[in-house]
Amino acid sequence: MESLFFSGVFDLPWWGITAAALALTHITIISVTLFLHRHQAHHAMDLHPAVSHFFRFWLWLTTGMVTREWAAVHRKHHAKCDTPEDPHSPQMLGLNRVLWGGVFLYVREARKPETLARYGHGTPDDWLERNLYSRHQTLGLTLMGVMDIILFGIAPGALILLTQIVWIPFWAAGVINGIGHYWGYRHWSTPDASTNISPLGILIGGEELHNNHHAYPTSAKLSSKWYEFDIGWLYIRLLEALGLAKVKRVAPIPSFSKPKAVVDPQTLQAVIACRYDVLARYA
Question: How far apart are CA 47 and CA 245, in angstroms?
């Protein structure tokens, strides 16, 4: 009986099972922040097709999320942020509802055809997406569960699968969308209530730096101060060094020149691009 419930290909001790669960969920977090968020929703970077498809396949296995749905809901969040039309604003719906029920708010919005039509453009629409990933969302989770049980045993594998299933709904749909618009510190005076939860963006792939993201949503880098760390940016730089990614945009860094008697178009453009930095320095 013991071997039935606690054996598998690897037959790991409890700390090995914990490490495996954290490693697998970390891959999922990186898939969300690099592929769904920075690459698909905001086009802040390009990914090599092989890397892009790996992330898409991994998310199908571990979350069942559809790229078009995720991008559409997130883009609407930015367009209607902290207003009654925001799909998941704790300022409108209350922190507890978003923190603990954010996944249900996401599913409700993802099922609206008008949201997908308005905000879901530019996402994958190939044969695999139409016939496998978007049509058979639970199949991926089923395959992941079978692999977890084969690799780690029945009881440990089931626990790892449960961890994988709840990880993104809690941390992304709950913590980022909830606490990230309710509590934390702010660098930038954005018109919404976004906050940076922690200066160390490790656990949620850098998404902890949420106020920075709302100030510069098309930036591939989420950290903006020397003491902030965005682990997602570290992975992007590694992929870029390997020729597997290309950064398209990052937050502007202001530079200063000698005073001018007349404001020219270049100066005006720089002030607009760096408007949050200008407000922070000179308000």
Answer: 4
